[in-house]
Write a structure and sequence with these properties.
Radius of gyration: 25 Å
Helix content: 25-40%
Structural class: alpha+beta
CATH class of the largest domain: Alpha Beta
Number of helices: 14
CATH topology of the largest domain: Rossmann fold
Strand content: 25-35%
Bound molecules: guanosine-5',3'-tetraphosphate
Largest sheet: 8 strands, antiparallel
Number of domains: 3
Length: 524
């Protein structure tokens, strides 16, 4: 129970957005407030530049850089904040989904001109499924964009979120004058070009004629907007936010460092401290004495001379200490780590002890796979590491018979890292690789060759989707298995999946076998 103070002051969250909405810029400004960096421009963007989409080596290189920015910890007003970085490129979306399992809340960044974009929709859907508390930051108010009411409407419709604004924009684009902070009841005036922390003027009565002195003719508009907004949107209740039922919305401009501090100030006040996690056996409370944690990300070194990896572990309970034996539950084996690293600001440093909500990086030579649990001895397995039904499929064949062992090992390890998913045809044992993006095939081929000395060849397969399936109706299951014998494969965990060749065949199966449930994520 001695960790309560440390637990309560921690905030571990992820920033998600469609590429270019301003995630990197916002992260950087948050780090500036935490004193974690001194100058703007210090955060290497882990963003995979648009021009590089055909150049996956460049993407891997940038992913390499992103090890440093995978987790950024900093102190702010007595809170320890951990920002989990998520890759922007959609081919690496699965990484983002997994990172979300290590976050206790998220901030969604939306571009005021573009509104809600497709990638944001997908990511928020996953957050909603898990009831992760969400805050929304509408960015780039220094540019012309959509009207605030219209945007909030769009957020509600497309993201299926109940929202309530905690700040309100005064003008926009060239006309942008600042925001009215509805939470702290203050006026924050925009001073374009200055990177000075904005001045905040306490202003709890908008009818006060002094408002005109500050924002001129915009005062009438603000009063009208506020009257309408307070009528339309529910009052903000922290409990509802923490339950994932309502999302507070802020407006600002990350580039101009405007609206960022108020977002951060509200965030440290209301965002959840580390929450517990479900295991297959029981719920683990962060306040338990014994250490437990799980691997949510594995990062391989691209350098063939150092084929080591870093496994990122989210501490769930107790505290993780250096040089102590811990149980690797899946392998039922004790492991000790002499140089576990944590990530403060941009620096990676060896730690002696970290607490729930913190992320620790463990040097790994191939023991870990995503989802693995580490404990002081208890045999518990953390749940909730999702696999999603991939979008693209290919058969993978050995192109160098002398190196089949290396190929098998390479494929195994790459799958453990979560690069793609592997299925094995039940009737013919052929290996099928399923990915979210086309780039992964190139990544796999290259890495197999350069890291494992193995060559593979991909062959086309006519496949629309793989779905996991379960049923209590044994008779239907048996009939399904018999009739679809050529279309059933086994995933890496030994679960059966149905290989649907087309949308039509999937629909036919669904309607014919009404007692069988077909799942598109492995978490059911
Ligand atoms: P991402 O990580 O979400 O992909 O976005 P990032 O922060 O890299 O921002 C994307 C672009 O939007 C960047 O411009 C950035 O400077 C700009 N931006 C971010 N916040 C604001 C804002 O509040 N107002 C305006 N006007 N622009 C903003 P870029 O030209 O693509 O990159 P760079 O050359 O400036 O780095």
């Amino acid at each position: 129970m001695g960790n309560l103070k440390e637990i309560n002051r921690r905030r571990t969250f992820a920033i998600i957005s469609h590429p270019d909405a301003g995630k990197t810029t916002l992260t950087e400004k948050l780090l500036l407030y935490g004193g974690a960096i001194q100058v703007a421009g210090a955060v290497k963007s882990n963003k995979i530049k648009k021009t590089a989409t055909s150049d996956w080596m460049e993407i891997e290189r940038q992913r390499g850089i992103s090890v440093a920015t995978s987790v950024m910890g900093f102190e702010y007003q007595g809170s320890k904040i951990n920002i989990l970085d998520t890759p922007g490129h959609q081919d690496f979306q699965e990484d983002t989904f997994r990172t979300l399992t290590a976050a206790d809340s998220v901030i969604v960044v939306i571009d005021v001109a573009k509104g809600v974009e497709p990638q944001t929709e997908k990511l928020v859907k996953v957050c909603r499924m898990r009831k992760i508390p969400i805050m929304v930051f509408i960015n780039k108010l220094d540019r012309p964009g959509k009207d605030a009411f219209e945007l909030l409407d769009e957020v509600e419709q497309k993201l299926n979120l109940k929202v309530t604004p905690l700040s309100w924009p005064i003008g926009m684009g060239a006309d942008f004058r600042g925001v009215y902070n509805m939470h702290f009841k203050s006026l924050n005036l925009f001073n374009p070009g200055s990177q000075v922390i904005e001045e905040s003027i306490a202003f709890d009565n908008l009818d006060n004629p002094e408002l005109e002195e500050y924002i001129g003719e915009k005062a009438t508009e603000l009063r009208e907007d506020q009257e309408l907004a307070t009528g339309v949107y529910p009052e903000f209740e922290v409990e509802e936010y923490l339950a994932g039922d309502i999302s507070p919305v802020f407006f600002g401009s990350a580039l101009n460092n405007f609206g960022v501090k108020e977002l951060l100030d509200v965030f440290v006040q209301i965002a959840p401290s580390p929450t517990g996690r479900e295991t297959e056996e029981r719920f683990v409370d962060p306040n338990e004495d014994a250490f437990s944690g799980f691997v949510f990300k594995i990062h391989a070194n691209m350098d063939p001379n150092h084929r080591d990896r870093i496994a990122f572990v989210r501490v769930v309970s107790g505290s993780f200490k250096r040089n102590i034996n811990y149980l690797h539950v899946r392998q039922n084996r004790q492991l000790k780590f002499s140089s576990p690293t944590a990530f403060m600001a941009q620096k990676k440093s060896v730690i002696d002890e970290v607490f729930p909500g913190d992320i620790v990086g463990l040097h790994d030579t191939g023991n870990f796979k995503i989802g693995d649990s580490l404990t002081e001895g208890e045999k518990i397995n953390f749940k909730g590491m999702p696999s999603f039904s991939p979008e693209l499929f290919k058969y993978v064949e050995n192109a160098d018979p002398m190196r089949s062992k290396q190929l098998a090992k390479g494929i195994d390890q790459l799958m453990d890292e979560g690069v793609a998913q592997l299925f094995k045809g039940k009737h013919n044992n052929r290996k099928i690789i399923g990915t979210v993006g086309a780039l992964q095939f190139e990544v796999i081929q290259y890495r197999l060759e350069h890291e494992y000395g193995a060559k593979c060849r991909f062959e086309p397969i006519n496949l629309f989707k793989t779905t996991w399936f379960v049923s209590d109706n044994e008779e239907q299951l048996e009939d399904f298995r018999a009739r679809k014998a050529l279309q059933i494969a086994i995933d890496k965990e030994g679960r059966e999946v149905f290989l649907a060749e087309s949308q039509y065949s999937l629909q036919m199966a669904q309607s014919k076998y009404s007692d069988i449930e077909f799942y598109f994520t492995s978490e059911f």
